[in-house]
Amino acid sequence: MRISFIGGGVMGEAMINSVLAKGVAANEEIIVSDISQLRRDLLAEKYKVRTTPNNLQALAGAEVVVLAVKPQDLRPVLNELAAGLSPKQLVLSIVAGATLSTLCRGLNHSGVVRAMPNMPAQVGEGITIWTATSEVTHGQKELARYLLAALGREIYVDNEKYIDMATAVSGSGPAYVFVIIEALIDAGVHIGLPREIAEKLVVETVLGSVRALQVMAKHPAELRNLVTSPGGTTVEGLLQLEKGGLRSLLLQAVIATYEKAKALDVAGGN
Length: 270
Known about the structure:
Distance between the termini: 35 Å
CATH topology of the largest domain: Rossmann fold
Strand content: 5-15%
CATH superfamily of the largest domain: NAD(P)-binding Rossmann-like Domain
């Protein structure tokens, strides 16, 4: 698969690493355009891919053009790419907040996929939700699916509204999980555990709990009940979490993130 990356930042690099590791594309089939000489040099040396400072040059011969620029840089990039895109090229955008209508209008191009990968994609364990315009062919959808599956798991949706919802849950979700992990480690240190031991206990507990949820295929509440004995220690801790409003805070965080995502159509003038 011949892939052009417009933008070689953190998430762009994560995609390059994954598609090479999974054999989706060969080194010589990837070209990366980035304004930073340092980034171009790093990517060329680390991944043996071609690089260029010229966005239009990067388009030549690409089957898939991945938009991976910062949201604030998107508008001029769209204007520039509009002059060089071929009608047969598929554009796959991972730019937060840029809607399909904004992308199609800015590019004067109808074959567009909008995707929202999350941070664990950097280690091949991400979850990406994506959608496409009606003009994207079945074959192009399969190309997009194949590429995004290299980042971890992928979910296709017919309605674009679910992208902003997923941004609030899976896009921002890792940050909430990391805060909880950090708090549990600090709590362990507070009651006397050495930090190294606290870190190992918490990380393995989180990993094991998630794996149990996947393997046992039970509702989280059922698994919580397996840990919670009547009159036991866990029920005392859960009581404090309920008193502190943990559920409500997480709900409010997701709602706030969702509202922000809906208002973030960066290139559309909002």
